[in-house]
Every structure is written in C-alpha cells, then in structure tokens.
Amino acid sequence: MITLKEALKLNKEELNNFKEELKAKIQARPELNAYIDINNVGEGVPIAIKDNIQVKDWSVTSGSNILQGYIAPYNATVINKMKDAGLSPFGRVNMDEFAMGSTTESSFYGKTQNPHNAEYVPGGSSGGSAAAVGAGLAIAALGSDTGGSIRQPAAFCGIVGMKPTYGRVSRYGLGAYASSLDQIGPMTQNVEDAAILYDIISGFDEKDSTSANKNDKVSDKLDSSRKLKIAVLPKHLDGASEDMKKAYALAIKELKNAGHEIVEHELMDAKFDISAYYITATAEAATNLARYDGIRYGNRVTGKNLEDTFIKTRSNGFGDEVKRRIMLGNFVLSSGYYEAYYVKAQKTRHMIKDQYDKIFVDSDLILSPIAPDIAPKFGELENPMDMYLSDLYSISVNLAGLPAISLPISKGENDMPIGLQLIAKAYDEQTLFDGALSLEKQINNKG
After folding, report:
1. How far lies 50's CA from each of 25, 47, 172, 385, 389, in Å?
2. Partner of 4 at 20 to 30 A CA spacing, among 45, 109, 194, 200?
3. Cα distance between residue 277 and residue 297, in whole Å
4. Residue 250 confidence (pLDDT)
5. Which residue ranges in the chain fall short of pLDDT 70?
6. Could you say which of 149, 390, 396, 438 is catalytic?
7. Which of 50, 81, 83, 163 is catalytic?
8. Which one from 64, 125, 170, 394 is the annotated catalytic residue?
9. How is the chain split into domains, by residue range?
10. Contact, 229 vs 260, CB < 8 A?
11. In whole angstroms, what is the distance from residue 114 CA to residue 45 CA?
12. What is the distance between the alpha carbons of residues 122 and 116, in angstroms, rounded to a whole number?
C-alpha cells in the first residue's frame, strides 16, 4: 500500500486507477467487514471515514439501528478540510455502536475481524478504521477517540493512531458520545502520514465552541533527531501481560539507543481513572443520546402515543451496551446521586490532570501501555466489567485532554501486534510526533 505522502503526489489518472484497485481489494475481503459502504466522493486521495463523522449525502449511522435511513445533510468540518487539501472520503467504516465499546462487536452491521488473525477483535470503537488500514484496504482513516478508541484499535491492528489535544480538531459533525472527551484523529500506516493527516484536519473552527484558537502545523517541522526526556511508569505495568512488559522494556531500550533520557515516574491507581471516566462518559452519553427519539430522524417504531413511541423506538433502536451506558448515565445524574458520583468524578478528573502536569514539569513525553495485553479473542470480553477494566491505560489521556499517539512496537502471542503510546502535554503535538518518529525509526531499523 502506498503511503499518504506518496498518494498526495499522484496525478489524476494515477489516482483514479489506484481507487479502482483499492475498491477491488476491499470487495475481495468481505469477511473482514471493515467497510460498511464504499462511497467515492470527489477526485482526491481516498480516506476511510468512521461511521460517526458526517459526510453530506451519505448514510451515517454511528453503527446503530436507530439511525438507519438517516442521510447526512452536511459535511463535518474535518471532511471539508480534507477535501480542501486534496483528500476525499472514500467509504464509511465499521465501529462499535455510538462509539461505545472496545471490540467493534456491538455494531449493527456485525463484527469486524482483526486483519492479522480472524479469531481476534480489531479493537474499538474505531475497529473498522484500524482494520481497513491494517489490512491494506485504506491509505489512512479517520477515527474518534473518547477513551482510547483510536489508540487501542491501532495497537491491536499494528498501525499508528493519534488522539489530538482536546480542542485541536473540530468536533462539528462528529456524532457525540461524551462531548468533553471526544476527539477525531488520524489512523495511518506510519507516523509521518499521521502528522500529515493531523495537519490537514486540525485548526480552529468557529462552529465548535470547544475549538482551540491554534493553527500551528507539525509535519513540515518533523525532527526525529531531537533529544527528549521521556518518563516511564514501571509500577503502572503491574496489571499488564508479560508480552506487554517485554514490549515496554524494548521501547525503553530503543529510546535510550536513540539518545533520549529516561526518567521514572508514577501515576495514581488506574481504578480512579476508570471510575471518573465511566461516570463522566455515561452521564454525557445519556444526555447526548436523548435526541434519538424516532421523531426527528432515523428509525421509528410507532406506539399508541408519544411516550410509547419514544420507549419502543429506543428499546428497538439501541443495542445492549448503549442501553447499559444510558442507564448508568441517568443514574449518576439523578437526584440524590449527582453529588455522590458526578461531582466527585469531576474532582478526580482534576486530580488526574494535575498528576500529568507534575510529570511534565521535568519530562517532554510519557511512555505508557494502551491495553493490558494483545487483542482479546472474540467473546473474551463478554462481561461488561472486563471490557471497562481493559481501558485502564487509555482513558486518563482523554480525562486530562492530552495528545497521545499509538505506534507498533513488537509482536506477542500468535504473532499479534503490540502497540504502546507516547503522551505529550496539551498542545505540544510537535514534540509528540518528533518522539514517535524517533521511536518508529529505531523499531524499524531493529527489524
């Protein structure tokens, strides 16, 4: 598969030929179920789009039954930025319903397979994006990350996935899960492509009230030779598998070989992250998903009156995991529990941000796992609590609003990919990409 950097240099005829070849490759791998639709829009470089990002005149359903029949009336800001830069939305890719999940098993369209082994999940919720890039069925893709939904599937599928600082990429046109956590980001074959796509989609947007007034670019200033101070978290790996610990040790060794200084730090117990995240995310999800009532758009199940229509539409339209999170969210926001749960979660969120700030006083980046182990096999995370606990390494980044990037490090059991993440201080994407490029070069040279 050609890279995004190479594809941007193709002429019109070469690009059209490539798109036909790409379409044939996608149609030859239906069992992967990465793509829901192939919709070529415009003449630009083809980019796969997660099914929760609005593309005008496309069916966009967030992987849910309740939005069947909905046609997007406008483009998300990131889509307009892509088209202006010579890229085009090429197809919508599978995802966990309303981005709620870690395996892409909760999709209305059925599960997506991991391109490295069909017995394993591709991760979630951006599993279709990761599988498409990992299988060579997309040059690059857009995903969204609320608690690790770009970085974790990228790690499971052996690709690069980057979550920007909260506010650096417009959320206008993104199907909302948890509005204070969601970010759109690039999923690519390598770090340089991720920087190029990040530059294209980032920047201030007046249509997003949380958009940061920053428009600085990184890809033209990439410098893998910078010597950085990188924090490692040895005690944070207590819950990780032996394969993950070996990958972490390898990454530290290669960072030292590249001339970076390694310093040890600690983060507080991840159980606090999980509690704060799931209280915050489900509360915001319950509020955001209240709009899906079958009256204004999407599927409707008509009842004997308005209330009965709401109940039947939502009962029929939402899957089990979405219903579970709506109920959790309504509970933590309900009278008598708001102070006990939601307010405490926001205080904990401030504590999490503060501990990251302390590390960044003397460190440029943090090296961290993304998941406790390689991708699980299908069915291994049937217990919702097991799925929630598997997010322990990824969610604090969203709670703190920081940028992070996942990149492949090694292989584990059954030759499955293992990825780790680098985390930077807010708005320091340049250092994040520089450090990631340095580590990527070390790993590739070693291989």
Report:
1. 19, 10, 14, 26, 24
2. 109
3. 30
4. 97
5. 41, 446-447
6. 149
7. 50
8. 125
9. 4-267+354-446
10. yes
11. 24
12. 9
Tell me, yes or no, if 125 is annotated catalytic: yes
Peptide bond into 125 cis (omega under 30): yes
Cα(345)–Cα(27) distance, integer angstroms: 46
Amino acid at 395: I
| Annotation marks residue 50 as catalytic | yes
pLDDT of res. 447: 56
**Among candidate residues 62, 145, 143, the one with its CA nearest the CA of residue 322:** 62
Tokens of 75: 């483009």
Q: SS in 3 state form for the chain?
A: CCCHHHHCCCCHHHHHHHHHHHHHHHHCCHHHCCEEEECCCCCCEEEEEECCECCCCCECCCCCHHHCCCECCCCCHHHHHHHHCCEEEEEEECCCHHHCCCCCCCCCCCCCCECCECCECCCCCCHHHHHHHHCCCCCEEEEEECCCCCHHHHHHHCCEEEECCCCCECCCCECCCCCCCCEEEEEECCHHHHHHHHHHHECCCCCCCCCCCCCCCCHHHCCCCCCCEEEECHHHHCCCCHHHHHHHHHHHHHHHHCCCEEEECCCCCHHHHHHHHHHHHHHHHHHHHHHCCCCCCCCCCCCCCHHHHHHHHHHHHCCHHHHHHHHHHHHHHCCCCHHHHHHHHHHHHHHHHHHHHHHCCCCCEEEEECCCCCCCECCCCCCHHHHHHCCCCCHHHHHHCCCEEEEEEEECHHHCEEEEEEEECCCCHHHHHHHHHHHHHHHHHHC
End-to-end alpha carbon distance in the chain:
19
Let me know: does 34 contact 114? Beta carbons within 8 Å. no
The number of residues making up the chain comes to 447
| pTM of the shown model | 0.96
What digits encode the pLDDT tens for the residues 362-372? 999 999 999 99
The pLDDT tens digits of the residues spanning 258-307 come to: 999 999 999 988 888 999 999 999 999 999 999 998 888 788 999 999 99
